[in-house]
């Protein structure tokens, strides 16, 4: 099968005063369907910038980004929004849950935006949350949940629309080590169970070793 994600010659630079800083210097990356890839690199190496690029979250990039065979550079803003909504799921270090919505509603909402029926979206949300051990916390708001529970809701939200590719930026970086291990195990199990691919940025070698493949970002290029 074709790659879910393929980048070629991906570049990104920023101007600071009189200096131009090259963060990405020609990144070639391929992620196969169902493959979970660890993106390793120290803080400041460009991991988040790469995820923003392949997540179609901002412009200013040079090179090719193909998602499910579609070349992002050939799409207008509406086309990129549609591709991002239909093909991608996102998990961040901080959960960014809607504080006035309970756990179920936070997972239902992206499905409604995607066009799902309310009843179907609720069934899907409760199933995902229950698989993450939150069956007894469905009606709790984020302020009533622990950090690990909030991040589990964020994982369920990312998988709600059955994305072909999940992009995760230090998804357990805000948790203590013991909780991070549990949540990450559940994240991997759910992604694999859903059949999604994933690109997971981390600086944690131990977590990276649990994924299918490891790539390292160093000085703006992949090793």
From TrEMBL:
**Is Membrane one of the keywords UniProt gives this record?**
no
Stated name of the protein: ABC transporter ATP-binding protein
- Kindly give the Gene3D superfamilies that the UniProt entry links to this protein: P-loop containing nucleotide triphosphate hydrolases (3.40.50.300)
Q: Which UniProt keywords apply?
A: ATP-binding, Nucleotide-binding, Transport
Molecular function via GO = ATP binding
CDD domains found in the cross-reference section: ABC_MJ0796_LolCDE_FtsE
Chain ranges of the ABC transporter domain: 5-223
Tell me the PROSITE patterns matching this sequence. ABC_TRANSPORTER_1, ABC_TRANSPORTER_2
State the similarity comment.
Belongs to the ABC transporter superfamily.
Q: Which SUPFAM superfamilies match?
A: P-loop containing nucleoside triphosphate hydrolases
Which Pfam families does the UniProt entry name for this protein?
ABC_tran
């Amino acid at each position: 099968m074709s790659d879910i994600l393929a980048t070629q010659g991906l570049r990104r630079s920023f101007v600071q005063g009189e200096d131009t800083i090259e963060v990405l210097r020609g990144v070639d990356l391929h992620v196969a369907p169902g493959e979970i890839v660890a993106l390793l690199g120290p803080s400041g190496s460009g991991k988040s910038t790469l995820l923003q690029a392949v997540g179609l979250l901002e412009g200013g990039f040079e090179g090719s980004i193909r998602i499910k065979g579609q070349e992002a550079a050939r799409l207008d803003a509406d086309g990129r929004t549609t591709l991002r909504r239909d093909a991608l799921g996102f998990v961040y270090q901080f959960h960014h849950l809607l504080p006035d919505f309970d756990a179920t509603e936070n997972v239902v909402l992206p499905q409604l935006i995607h066009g799902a029926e309310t009843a179907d979206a609720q069934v899907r949300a409760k199933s995902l949350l229950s698989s993450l051990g939150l069956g007894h916390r469905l009606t709790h708001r984020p302020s009533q949940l622990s950090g690990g529970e909030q991040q589990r809701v964020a994982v369920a939200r990312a998988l709600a629309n059955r994305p072909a590719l999940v992009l995760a930026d230090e998804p357990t970086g805000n948790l203590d080590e013991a909780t991070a291990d549990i949540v990450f195990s559940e994240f991997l199990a759910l992604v694999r169970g859903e059949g999604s691919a994933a690109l997971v940025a981390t600086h944690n070698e131990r977590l990276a070793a649990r994924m299918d493949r490891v790539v390292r970002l160093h000085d703006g290029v992949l090793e």
